[in-house]
Amino acid sequence: MTIESFWRETLKDSKKLTALAIPIILSSVTTAALAITDSYFLSRLDSPVPLAGYGLTATFLVVFYATVYGFLNPLVIMVAQAAGSKQYKKVGEVVRVGCFMAITAGSLFGLLMFACYFLLRLFGQPIEVVAGVFGYWITVSLSIGFWATGYVIKQTLDALQKPWTATLIYSSMIVVNLPLAYGFIFGVADWLPALGLAGAGIAWLMADMISNALFFLYFFLNPSMKKYHGTKNGGGAKWFLRTPLDKKIIKNFIKNSIPVAIESFFEVVSYAMLGVMVGWFGVQALAARQISNGFLEMLYMIPLSMTYATTIVIADIVGKKQFSRLRIAGGASLMIVSCLTLLSVVFLLLVGNSVATFFGAGLPLADVIIPLAAGFLVIGAVSQMVDGLQSTMLGALRGLGDFNFSSIVSIIGYMLVSLPLAYIFGFHIFHHPMGIIAGFIVGVFLVGMILAVRFWQKTNFKRA
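^ that's the sequence the OP posted. Answer follows.
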């Protein structure tokens, strides 16, 4: 292959990846935007405790969200395959199975999330934070099941080449949550009391429910979706609710879901433990991390979305047996995510302190919290660059069908390498909460390099 043809193919794959990633990033940013608005409202209260409680809850919540996300991930592949082979009724059956799995997994992990509340004191968290977070903890535990069910329909629309429709509906959560959160947190006149952190949870749950309703209304009422509906029991909602589920689809769904769910669980548990470690430095450190978390979660949507897009592109290449293009596509993915995350680092170097000041100026001990938050923003952006390598290579290996190796590396690398390094850097080398993140970055980089080497070995097209 000549240099000219190499760059032509790289540009072609870059355009395809970007087209896939943009709507995925925008829909993913919705959740991060909710976190930012809630963080801003809570930072305007008289105490840093609600903001610290919000951050502590998010540390645990992300574990269960990510595990359910991983469990439901194969659905998009099953729907796309069925639609591609014009088995339209099978698409509907896969969606029905996906909704059943979402309700089951969402309910189970919601109960586990609720149970984790009673373990907070065992993790050494500040007593005032634990006491103040109970109402919020209950509502977000309930929200897991609602979110999971709606996410099934979102994935379905993505797989059916309707990503912008999915993004538009998913983004309705912002429109709904903004006024509800303001009203429930601060109160409205004399008829709605100020509920503080608990009010943020109520608004989040209501926004989830409304977004779900819009997804299902689209699935059942939009004419373009009719061909995916079954005809048993009269079709429509009766078919959806009363027809027995296809056992073969259930078996296939579970078989593909478990490895990804386990991998997602252990990876995000390691991130959750970072929040616990930060909590050992006190309320101010927790509040500072939460100020930074909203923006960092938004930045994380870049490598996360590239993981998804890379998986699709690599799988498409493998299906077409164009093995010589695998390394080109993988390199294009790395190039895109590296450029985007580098821009994030530069942006936060320039405005990180202003962002921290904007969110933290009204808090008690702001002179302590603001510098910590600014530091978390910058070092967190650097971690996104490293995570871009890890996430992109993980997505590429999934596209190759190499699930087991990536799962083993993720579990060992994150739990047995990254977390110990985070503890050593934070409490024995730097004696500072940002040292925790620095140590973790080193571990993530090692995981990413191992996955990159594995991808290079697996994409020797002569062997493939």
